[in-house]
Amino acid sequence: MLKRVLPVAAAAVVLAGAPAAWADSSAPSAQPPAKAAGHAKPSDKVVRETLDNGLQVIVVPDRMAPVATTMLTYKVGSREAPKGFPGMAHAQEHMMFRGAKGLSAQQIAGIGAALGGQSNAFTTNDSTTYYYTVPSQFTDVALHLESVRMKSVLDKPADWKQERGAIEQEVSQDMSSPIQVAIKRMREALYKGTPYSHDALGTRASFNKTTAKMLKHFHNQWYAPNNAVLVVAGNVDADQVLAQAKQLFGGIPSQKLPQRKPVKPGKVESKTIHMPTDSGYGFALIGSRAPGSRDAQAMATTEVLASVLNNPRGPLYTQMVASGKSLAAQYTTLPAALGSIGVSYVVFPKGADADALVKQMRSILGGIAKKGISPDQVAAAKRQLITQDMAARDSISGLAHRWTQAVAVDHLQSPADQLAAIKNVTAKDVNQMLTQLIQPDQSVLAILTPEGSGAPQTGGGYGGSESFAPKNVNHVKLPEWAAKPLAKITTPEPSLKPVETTLDNGMKLITVDSDSFHAVHVYGHIRNAPDLETPKHQEGVSDVLSQLLDFGTTKHDRKAYQAALDAIGAQASAGTDFSLTVLPEHFDRGLDLLAENELHPALPKHAFEILKQRAAASQAGTIASPDFKADQAMRRGILPKGDPSLRFATPKSISGLSYADVTDYYHKVFRPDLSTIVVVGDITPAEAKKAVTGAFGDWKAQGNKPDVNLPKVPDNKASFHHVPDKSQSQDTVQLAESLGLTVNAPDFRALKMANQVLTGGAFASRLYRELRVQRGLVYYVSSGLDASRTRTQLTFQYGSDPDKVKEADKLVRQALVHLAQVPISNDELHRVRAGLIRQVPLGEAGADSVGYGLLSRVELNQPLNEPYRAAKAYQSIDAKQIQAAVKKWFRPDDLVRVVQGPKPK
């Protein structure tokens, strides 16, 4: 459904994704591997070998789900780009999807769509990685594809001409983000004169000078087996995968690699960068050089330091966030192999004194360095990091990434080396590192001040739609090694068996027991609807309550509660969505602490007054931001006048809240008979029920159960809204309309298949092919059916230059018209079925996907095995049924358009 623009307490999460330049993703997929009768169970030991040609192969078995991730990393990134061409590695990453000798771009796209798995690639300063997460019986298909691309990419001039348009749209997208621009300028200042002075993204100017011949030369130089690491993780036979890797990659010759450029930066020239931002809140970032990840002990020390500094018990949070002065204050690292960037940042409401906040942050960090970090603080941080490390193993793709980072990037033997380094960190190490990182004369300051961008402009709809009937997708003949295994689509069976029970107080408990999990993960949700449950003139009460839950319990104040979590290395959060991650031996204690926060929050009055003032100031900036205006424009276009979801908090409504308003809202909304808890881990249903009953069993509901289902909405009419955004050079375009069916209606699955035709399977989908592959109008285009129990919306989003918006918009509408006019071809139907059916087991390939997936099904009132029921249904839905559903429910002439950025030309 339409997503509310939040005021941001976790504001600068964008920092976490800053270093990487992402390419292109296919649709998910999955299926269980065939079991050979009479064969011994495959070994669960890690198997590794360096082939004669230098390729390092590592196979990490994991029996969590019938899924595998292949991750092939080349030790080449933006650091090796030729002078004047900073995006060369990134460009070559894109071109790897444009075809290789004996494997066309259409075949690569077709294989990705038929696999149904998640595929992507990303380029950093030091490496370029390609991965597939697929049903494990198709591991050899993914490996075969990668071996062909390693041997000989095509890099044809005509292909580069088309792909250049898409990659330039990606540059426009990132350069339309003020914080990305700030980090880019910070990097230039900190690593001036080195290969790290630029990021992996590249620039329009450099891409305009780049030729296909240059890209081919770059591939020939660096894409060699002796410069690569192949990691395969998942439910595979390690010896069999190793044998396949030898067969597929063993014959590719090694080659002499060019000399790598050193990273030897000079003295930092301290400077301040001032920039506007389109966000409703501001950022102040202090960046300094930090150790590279290849220095394992120094990097481990930095991780421990960050955990200490970010602890809610610490002075950074206490004096800057809990005091109400800022929305967030943390330390993070943007890693690179030979030199990272350490960033201390504060997020503040519009109108706050940024200079004063920076001064205070520097003072706090200086005070910590002067006083010193104690061994107890370091021990607590290490316990937290050990739990995080164990939890990170509870994902097949995450497991592959851990090994890739450790071996391919950090040049370690295994992720165990990283954990060992963390365990060896001392308080002395941490204090020395802090002193090194906070020197003002060795840092760069960036201040991003929120500014308005003008009022939205609203116009009418489309007018009549054209009749458009392009040919169906051409048949793509796959190579035999892919065609044969992908021909038959088998309906998967669940590998995990959730056990559902209901406690006496009405709380639902779902337990997923598997010895593949290393930590215990608890996911909780209370069904609620602030748009319905918030009393008149109290808009914003749910946000204030959410922040107030961070202030401890009736038994433990804020610091004491965090200390109790630190003592067992647990991570917990309270709210209508609540969670816990803890090691198995601490499960009972962790669950007790979670319940204590959820059922007996302190809700201190003094904190309420502080948070109310901060929330009001923050909301003033949020309402003025283009993001919020675009969200509201879409809501007004989709929803009827007076709809509950048109409500939003204002500084006035927040300032008018009383303490009783917040506590009354808590008692009304927080109730067991609307709550569900999912426990995922190596724990039996009986053990989980005993622990959950002990922690939550005495919780009783107060008053009548509220109605949390929004009313149905009528069909909307077309409208156009332009939201100016001075910070963006590229437009963000959203298209949406209400649909008159619910998620459990008979036609919903047919519409899911129609959506898969539009954007599922990435390059094999109609909109990716039309908008990106053939015309280079966009970097990405997404579509989806956003649904609740009572409402469904068809949504599209893409980013495009202002002069390309009109053509892209027209093509989206034409695609909808064509879906209603002409049944999809048999080949396309096969790809759609394969993509949707094979993605199902991926929902069991990680603790988070299992836990949140089950909560989602409860929220939507669906059976817990709904994905497998849907997979069976997809086998029987034909092209005519898809066409009929599209014709009945999709209305191309009624799409609401919201364009954020420059005015389309």
Automatic annotation (TrEMBL):
Residues annotated as domain Peptidase M16 N-terminal: 60-203
Domain of life: Bacteria
The protein's name: Peptidase
Record keywords: Signal
GO MF terms, alphabetically ordered: metal ion binding
Signal peptide coordinates: 1-23
Naturally occurring in which organism (per UniProt): Salinisphaera hydrothermalis (strain C41B8)
InterPro entries, per database record: Metalloenz_LuxS/M16 (IPR011249), MPP/UQCRC_Complex (IPR050361), Pept_M16_N (IPR011765), Peptidase_M16_C (IPR007863)
Pfam families: Peptidase_M16, Peptidase_M16_C
Peptidase M16 C-terminal domain segment(s): 211-385, 657-836
Biased composition (Low complexity): 24-37
The family this protein is said to belong to: Belongs to the peptidase M16 family.
